[in-house]
Amino acid sequence: MFWSVFAHFFAGVFLTNGVPHFVNGISGHRFQTPFASPPAVGESSPILNVLWGMTNFVIGLLLLRVGTFRLGLTADTIVFFAGATDGSTSPDTTRSSKIGIYF
């Protein structure tokens, strides 16, 4: 039980994290990845962002396979969306300052 809750939470984080990388990559825009130089400051190529986004999607989908994930108003879904919310609202001052949003 505990491991599936943990896995479903991080599935939400990984699936949400893959979205901006994938969207920026297929749009032809550079975006930060862990592989940028310098780390957490530089931006990576669109191709690397597509690959990093897809890697996040695969990891997220594999984590959803831990235990039984039921879509609906269940604990699985609530934990998944808690992870998705955490992954999409965690403050990142480097990225947010570029678009004029300050937390």
Describe the model:
- This protein is mostly helical.
- The chain has one domain.
- It is built from four helices and no strands.
- Helix 1 runs antiparallel to helix 2 and helix 1 crosses helix 3.
- The longest helix has 25 residues.
- The radius of gyration is 15 Å and the shape is elongated.
Main sheet, how many strands, which sense, barrel?
Answer: none
Overall radius of gyration: 15 Å
What's the order of the H and E elements?
HHHH
Helix coverage percent = 55-70%
Rounded mean pLDDT score:
81
The general outline is elongated
The number of domains is 1
Number of strands: 0
Please tally the helical runs, counting DSSP H or I stretches of 4 or more residues. 4
Distance between the termini: 35 Å
Structural class: mainly alpha
The low-confidence parts are: 93-103
Classify the beta-strand content into a percent band. under 5%
Keywords:
single chain; 103 residues; mainly alpha; 63% helix; 0% strand; elongated; disordered C terminus
Summary of the model, kept short:
By secondary structure, the protein is mostly helical. 63% of the residues lie in helices and 0% in strands.
Present the secondary structure layout.
Layout: H1 2-26, H2 46-64, H3 75-89, H4 93-98
